[in-house]
Amino acid sequence: MLYYLFQYLDKTFDFPGAGVFQYISFRAAMALIFSLLISLVFGKRIIDFIRKKQIGETVRELGLDGQKQKSGTPTMGGLIIIAAIIIPTLLFAKIINVYIVLMLITTIWLGGIGFLDDYIKVFKKNKEGLKGKFKVIGQIGIGLIVGSVLYFHPDVVIKDRIESTSRDLGTISISGEKKLSSPKYAEVPVKTLRTTIPFFKDNELDYGKFVSWICDDCMKYGWIIFIPMVILIVTAVSNGANITDGIDGLAAGTSAIIGVVLGILAYVSGNTVFADYLNIMYIPNSGELVVFIAAFVGACIGFLWYNAFPAQVFMGDTGSLAIGGIIAVYAIAIRKELLIPILCGVFLVENVSVILQVVYFKYQKKRKGLEFAQANRLFKMAPLHHHYQKVGFHESKIVMRFFIIGIALGVLTFVTLKLR
Hints:
60% of the residues lie in helices and 4% in strands. By secondary structure, the chain is mainly α.
């Protein structure tokens, strides 16, 4: 909203300094700062309110060190994250941008599902929370919305490069100064289901190719593959973030690292010079997503202030489902969803550890009986972070090492743009 206000002041009254709101970098910085302030200042008040209402987490006895002490810790702290994302985004982003609207819908939608789950657990005293099938229906619903908008909305387009340019970000003039080159792109944008695929020289994959063999004109039915893919990614990543939220600070910190990388990817995808240099598709209007992700990173870091060991508040499903869904939809919007297995490697490993634990247990139970299966689990406990707790690592050490792995995966994700 402030963007439109200062744009009006700049054009109508030539208001001093109003023009700075034209720059994405400035608005992203302001969104980050405001998000941090909201998390830190109002976060404390929200925690105090939750504590007064006795909205505490009922921690199951898992035989882990420090588990009992966490019982009664305020939960539903994801409300802090959601508020710290939405408010700065509304203030500093172009809210009529289709990508911004989509991210806001995703945040509210999945945050709402998580809130219902936490509400049932806390107020209805039902430890199971919202039934799994209803969570999945909600995830499928937002996946359908996101996939349909990204396919049908006229503003979701890319521009093809029409002239090859140098890959050194510029040319040397007669005076010896380096000047930025101006890559040329088609005037008319195109609707396409192309996405970035890592490690290949021609690093674009069109979902339409999966059905192009059926008939000569079947490329246009690529949405049959694309929309289910969106649903799968949103469901997997939101559940991955939910599973990762098992020890203090892990989900919030890991998500902040992922958010920084996604912000860089969105910036270069929405900038003609950097998109040309990195030889990735140029996506008009996607640069505005940098403002949103700045608020997201600020919200995660601000929440980490209270969620770091020993946690003063838990995000609950209100936060974990929302941040997972945000990461998934954001990556899909900037056409980097195939980089998720690398970028969200921590979420992936956590998810896979649970699946492997269940599959291996059932296999051993069928093969050698229940007693043998219970005594010979693949991991001492799943998800993986609990396995390391059982081994004897303190949760702070586990969290920091997962952060280091997350940073390494983030760097690798960005490097894949040039590793082909």
